[in-house]
Structures are given as structure tokens and as C-alpha cells.
Amino acid sequence: MIINNLLVSYTDEGQEGSSVIIFIHGFPFNKSMWNLQVEPLKDNYRLIMYDIRGHGNSDAGNEVFSIDLFANDLIGLMDALKIDKAILCGLSMGGYIALNAMGKYHERFDALVLSDTQCIADTSEAKEKRMRAIESIKYTGVEKYAEENIKNFFSPESFLTKGKEIADVREMIVKTSEQSLCSTLLALSVRKETCHILPEIKVPVLIMVGNEDKITPPAAARFMHEKIEGSFLKIIDHAGHLSNLENPGEFNVQLKKFVASVY
Ligand code: MLT
User: Fold this and answer.
1) Which of 71, 95, 9, 66 is nearest to 183 (CA)?
2) Mean pLDDT of the 62-91 span
3) Which of 95, 146, 203, 241 would you call most buried, defined as having the most Cβ atoms within 10 angstroms of its Cβ?
4) Is 49 helix (H, G, I), strand (E, B) or coil?
5) What pLDDT shows up at residue 240?
6) 113 CB near ligand 1 (under 6 Å)
7) What is the pTM of this model?
8) Which of 92, 127, 189, 194 to mutate to test the pocket of ligand 1 (most atoms within 8 A of CB)?
9) Mean local confidence (pLDDT), 209-222
10) Confidence band for 4, pLDDT divided at 50, 70 and 90
11) Is the CB of 150 under 6 A from ligand 1?
12) Among candidates 112, 74, 75, 115, which has minimal Cα distance to 93?
């Protein structure tokens, strides 16, 4: 589908006319990271999974990447699909986008699921790390970047039990162009914090995090939980940063229970 002159790749599954859940993937992945969430939800909801610009099969366009731009793209997609309101489910960068969109367009969302994410901006140390990553992608390429980063995404246990998921994630990373990886790393490094909007969120919120998430650790989830009145916090066992892939059973049980309580 063409939205604001950009080809956006998405899948539209489940029940037409039902309540909508929109899934926003993390970095540097794509919509296929949500495949294990389709089956348990498709009988009762309409499920939209899309590729953020520059990722998966979506075009990158010509604009400078930013979380603001990604949030505007999300609203553009909702408008194009005539979705007035939805539940947003974002993992990591997907959560940054969900919180950014919530701050600007709160009337478009019935509830939020924030998975393995945080509300703070990058520290100067984190920014430097992103700059080093950009250098390394330019000099040593995407394959090496994937090899080094995959270690941080999964729990040690997953390396013994989740061979397919790890291979799938590696594939998602190497499929992303060097240009998109670098542009998104820059966008992430300059993103604004969204912690200040948390006390203003009045819709139901479920926060989930892998108990071994090293990138956006449980402490970051607890911090958001304390700031969002009435929010639910679920720590997912046997999972690192990609809790929906590493422990889909528990993730899906919590997600289903939550959305059933919203609609
Ligand atoms: C993600 O999974 O989206 C990234 O780890 C987020 C980040 O690097 O801040």
C-alpha cells in the first residue's frame, strides 16, 4: 500500500470488523517477528503487522528517519486502512514509536502493550555506542553487525533451545539495508524521552519484559509501571529482549488476557 508516497508492507489478518491490534516491531527486525502472535489472536481480533520504513519490505523513502516520522507513518497507515482506534503492541523500538504516538494522538488508541522497551532517551554512552555501530556497519558490513548483536537479543537459555528463532532474527537483520540500519541507529540516538507522558496515559497498559533482557531491562519496565497508573507488569521468564519469540506461550497468554479485558 502506498502511504505518503511510500510503499508500506503490512499484513492484515484475523476478523474483519473486529477490534484492531497493531503490532510494531523492534530494531533491526521486521513484521515477521510477530508471526507467533497471529494464531492465538486471529479468531477474535483484526491483526495488523507492518514493516517500519526501511525495514522488511517497506520502502525507505527520502526523509530523515526519526521516531516522530515513524509515529506519523503509523497514523498514516491507520488512516489509509480506515482504522479509527486500535490497541498498539510495540516491542523495544516499537514501544518507543507507540509512546511517541500516544503522546501526540492519544485519542486514536484504546490500550497499549509495551514490551521490552523503555521511556528514556539515549544516554551519552548509548549514543556513542550507536556511532560505533554505524562505523562498524560501514567498515565490516551487516553480517558482522548481526553476528555481534544477536548475542544481546536472546537469553543464554534461548541459545540452547531457540535455534530457529535465532536464525530467523539473523535473517531479519541481514535483510535490512546498510543505509536503513545506519539511519535508524541515528534516529534512535536522537529520540526524545517519553517518560513525561506516562502519568497522563488514561488507557489500559500492559508492560511485559523478559527477565533476562539486557537492552531494556526489567528495571526500565518497573519504572514505567510505577508512572502509569493502573498499568499491569508481567515479567516473562526464559526470555531476554525478544520475549514474544523466546517465550511465546507466556507472552500470548498475557496478551490475550489483557486484550480481552480491554474489549
Ligand atoms: C530494539 O530492539 O528495537 C532496539 O534494541 C532498541 C534500541 O536499540 O534502543
Assistant:
1) 66
2) 98
3) 95
4) strand
5) 98
6) no
7) 0.98
8) 92
9) 98
10) confident
11) no
12) 115
